[in-house]
Design goal:
Number of domains: 3
Helix content: 55-70%
Structural class: mainly alpha
CATH topology of the largest domain: Growth Hormone, Chain: A
Mean pLDDT: 84
Strand order of the largest sheet: 1-2-3
CATH architecture of the largest domain: Up-down Bundle
Shape: globular
Number of strands: 8
Pfam families: UVB_sens_C, UVB_sens_prot
Largest sheet: 3 strands, antiparallel
Low-confidence stretches: 1-5
Subcellular location: Membrane
Family: Belongs to the RUS1 family.
Keywords: Membrane, Transmembrane, Transmembrane helix
Distance between the termini: 78 Å
Order of helices and strands: HEEEHHHHHHHEHHEHEEHHHHE
Length: 440
């Protein structure tokens, strides 16, 4: 009788950050009894303190699956640059003559201020010229920023040997650091937005900053010891080892990020696989991120300018009045695609209410038309190949090609969208390079 009562008792398992914690039981009097009180683990362990200080709340449920491995490599690269940076600044001080009896503190102060000024100017100019492209290719830009940071350290390290051009070297060094600051500040936001799974971007940003600060704090004590006892003939070998470690850690950190949002490179890789397999399969999120170039971009099959101004469209492909009127009157169509055969460049005019789905559909049409132009004709009339063959036969007339792709309410795109969503791709956001001009 007692065993039957125990079987009928209602149990509730409680989870904390995805881990089982307390087990509760409801008795016959509707009282909630904690069955785990006597066996509850102590929360005073080092791991619990480390997690509380340096990991986001609700970890690992509140972050993407790549968060842990990314932070592992991020710790490595942060420690390496913190130590190599200290070696570089020490060399810069020696180049300025700090510690020498004959040194002119006023001259050193002026050099320091001028190099800071050069860095500020470089930061402003770089942001003006490249800020709009940082989101779309944040992995590549973030890695370029790390390379610039290492170049800056190298320049600082050689200043004691070229004191006659100290101001020029230190100014170039500070410009590199200033550009790095802009790049990292901008691209980290995109990475943290990807890693946030619980509207916790601020929490992830703050905890990542705390973790890097802790690594830098540990590196500070290491720097004090190294600068005190390290022989001058070992500075360069140590710096080279740390620089290699810094770049390796950064490369692995970028490789570990699994973006499920499309940019031009990832979308091109996904579409290429989709077309080659007759619409039967695509690359997974992990596969496409492993193939995405981190530093050197491959030669693309085409170039495209989206959201462009009418003033920037070449005259020989400028849309006719009839095309513009049809585009204006057709509320269902939110982009007008143009193609320059001479330069293999696509241009797209966008309406003000064009959304992410429209941008992905537009890029899908561009990829399919480009694939049809440059791939050998397949005689198969099954599945996606049937549409590609029809586009190939009408490739000289872009409008007819688009009519084919628009058939059955964009059926070929909708099939592509379904298989992408099934594989975990996000169609609510995109990271394409899109200009800000719209026409109505």
């Amino acid at each position: 009788m007692e065993e039957n009562e125990n079987l009928n008792k209602f149990h509730i398992q409680e989870y904390e950050c995805g881990q089982k914690t307390n087990l509760y039981r409801m008795d016959n009097y509707q009282n909630c009894i904690n069955l785990s009180t006597m066996t509850k683990k102590s929360n005073l362990s080092f791991a619990s303190f480390f997690r509380a200080f340096f990991f986001p709340d609700n970890y690992p449920l509140g972050v993407s699956s790549d968060y842990g491995i990314y932070q592992y490599y991020n710790i490595i690269q942060t420690g390496c640059i913190a130590i190599s940076g200290a070696l570089a600044f020490s060399a810069l001080f020696r180049g300025m003559g700090v510690g020498q009896d004959a040194s002119n503190y006023l001259a050193a102060s002026i050099v320091w201020l001028l190099k800071d000024g050069a860095g500020m100017i470089g930061r402003i100019i770089f942001a003006w010229g490249f800020a709009a492209t940082l989101d779309a290719d944040c992995k590549q830009w973030h890695f370029i920023g790390d390379i610039l940071n290492d170049i800056a350290c190298t320049l600082d390290l050689i200043t004691p040997y070229f004191r006659s051009v100290l101001l020029i070297i230190s100014s170039v060094s500070n410009i590199c650091r200033a550009i790095t600051f802009v790049i990292h500040g901008s691209t980290r936001t995109v990475i943290f937005q990807h890693q946030a799974r619980n509207n916790n971007v601020a929490d992830i940003t703050a905890k990542c900053s705390s973790l890097e600060t802790m690594v830098s704090l540990v590196a500070l004590f290491v720097n004090i010891i190294l600068l005190s006892i390290l022989p001058s003939n070992l500075i360069w070998p140590l710096f080279i080892i740390l620089t290699i470690g810094h770049l390796w850690g950064n490369y692995k950190a970028k490789r570990s990020i699994l973006f499920n949002v499309f940019n031009h490179q990832r979308f091109h890789l996904v579409c290429s696989e989709y077309f080659k397999t007759n619409g039967k399969q695509i690359l997974s999120v992990e596969q496409v991120n492993n193939q995405e170039p981190i530093l050197f971009k491959p030669l693309q099959r085409h170039h495209s300018y989206l959201g462009i101004s009418l003033n920037h469209i070449p005259k020989h492909i400028f849309p006719s009045q009839e095309q513009l009127e049809n585009f204006h009157n057709n509320e269902a169509e939110r982009f007008l695609l143009l193609y320059d055969k001479q330069k293999d460049i696509f241009y797209a005019l966008l309406k003000p209410y064009a959304d992410n789905d429209d941008l992905i559909r537009l890029n899908f049409f561009i990829e399919l038309i480009s694939y049809a132009r440059k791939s050998s004709i397949n005689n198969s009339n099954e599945g996606l190949y049937e549409i590609i063959n029809r586009v190939q036969k009408q490739i000289s007339n872009l409008n007819i090609c688009l009519d084919i792709l628009h058939e059955n309410n964009n059926h070929c795109y909708e099939q592509f969208k379904i298989i992408c969503i099934t594989h975990g791709y996000n169609f609510h956001r995109s990271l394409f390079n899109v200009d800000f001009f719209r026409v109505q």
